[in-house]
Amino acid sequence: MHASPDAYAGVFLRGRCHDAGSGRDAVKAATRAARDRMAKSSNTTDWFAEGLHRIRECFDHVQAGRVIPVDELAWLGVLLTSVLIRDIAFTFCRAYGDDVARRLWTEVACRVEPEFVPAPAANLAFLAARSDDLALARAAAERALTIDPEYSFANLIMHGLNMGVPPARLRDIDLDDLAAQITERAMEHPAETRPVLPPAPDPS
Fold first, then answer.
1. Closest residue by Cα to residue 125 from 149, 144, 107
2. Of all helices (H) and strands (E), which one includes residue 79?
């Protein structure tokens, strides 16, 4: 039995997202299948459209109070390794609201396999920083950097937190304009939308 979407924030802040016995075997199996699906994908796959579709489905689950199904969760984790898909996913807080977005990014960062944590954790950190929840922003950025110390988005957020960048400046970012820019980039450079899988963990 998984926790409800609202229950993940506490375990995230306590660093207990990936404790054994929380459906990890199912997530591991789904992640292996998602990796295989990615490896067998066609070069003609419209990754940006696939990303938009999957992001919307996962937001709908969270908005309705449902836990994201494990297969959809694992595939979202793969898709978010594309920077353009990660970034367009962040802008969905426009349509769904910050509360739903916070629950989604917390759940995804808690449940995906560790090598897929940096993207959703960085999105959570940026959302929290915009909302002036600096404790959550720092915890999420640190979580991303624990997995990948070179993850540029998380490093940028951490730098902003350390420099005391006012949340109001982050809230001034026009998400409609940002979404338009990301979409234009994706249309002009479709190869950049392809996910980039992290190395698979050592099975031992």
1. 144
2. helix 70-79
pLDDT digits (tens, 9 = 90+) for 124-137: 999 999 999 999 99
> In this predicted structure, what is the pLDDT of residue 16?
56
Could you tell me the pTM of the whole model?
0.90
5 secondary structure, DSSP code: G
Length of the chain measured in residues:
204
**Closest by alpha carbon to 102, among 2, 5, 200, 204?**
5
Instruction: Locate 49 and state its tokens.
Output: 């459209």
- At 109-123, the pLDDT tens digits run 999 999 999 999 999
Measure the CA–CA gap between 13 and 6, rounded to whole angstroms: 13
Q: In which residue are the tokens 């898909």 written? A: 85
Residue 161: CB partners within 8 Å, gap ≥ 6?
129, 134, 137, 138, 141
Contacts of 76 (CB under 8 A, 6+ apart): 54, 55, 58, 68, 108, 112
